Amino acid sequence: MGLNETLKALADPVRRQILEMLKHGPKTAGELAQAFDLTPATISYHLSQLKKADLISPQKDKNFIYYQLNLTVFEEILNWFSSLGGSTHDKD
């Protein structure tokens, strides 16, 4: 997954709120949907965009699919942001 797709997925406030909810542990689509006044189809769309950006991963458990954060991608993003800062010796 490229950085453009990741940043595009992060640009939406609903998706950021979903990520905030998942930092407390895995949740089903139904559990996530309860926090929003959105149709199940809309929640499904947001989850698919987050999966496409590899920001979350689904885990099947019996009849449920639990979504959880993919922390590896967040570490890559943080490293990229950090690399933009340079060192204090790089300043003019």
Short key terms for the protein model shown above:
alpha+beta; 5 helices; 92 residues
In words, what does this structure look like?
The protein has 92 residues and is α+β, with helices and mostly antiparallel strands. It contains five helices and three strands. Helix 1 packs antiparallel against helix 4 (40-52).
Question: What does the secondary structure layout of this molecule look like, with pairings?
Answer:
Elements: H1 3-10, H2 13-22, E1 27-28, H3 29-33, H4 40-52, E2 56-61, E3 64-69, H5 71-85
Antiparallel strand pairs: 1-3, 2-3
Helix pairs in contact: 1-4
- Global Rg: 16 Å
Strand content: 15-25%
Overall pLDDT level? 89
The helix-and-strand class reads: alpha+beta
Unreliable spans: none
* Tally of DSSP helical segments: 5
Ends apart, CA distance between termini: 35 Å
| N to C succession of SSEs | HHEHHEEH
What spatial order of strands do you see in the largest sheet? Answer: 1-3-2
**Major sheet attributes:** 3 strands, antiparallel
Q: Considering DSSP H and I runs of 4 or more, what fraction of the residues is helical?
A: 55-70%
**Would you count the extended β strands for me?**
3
The coarse silhouette is elongated
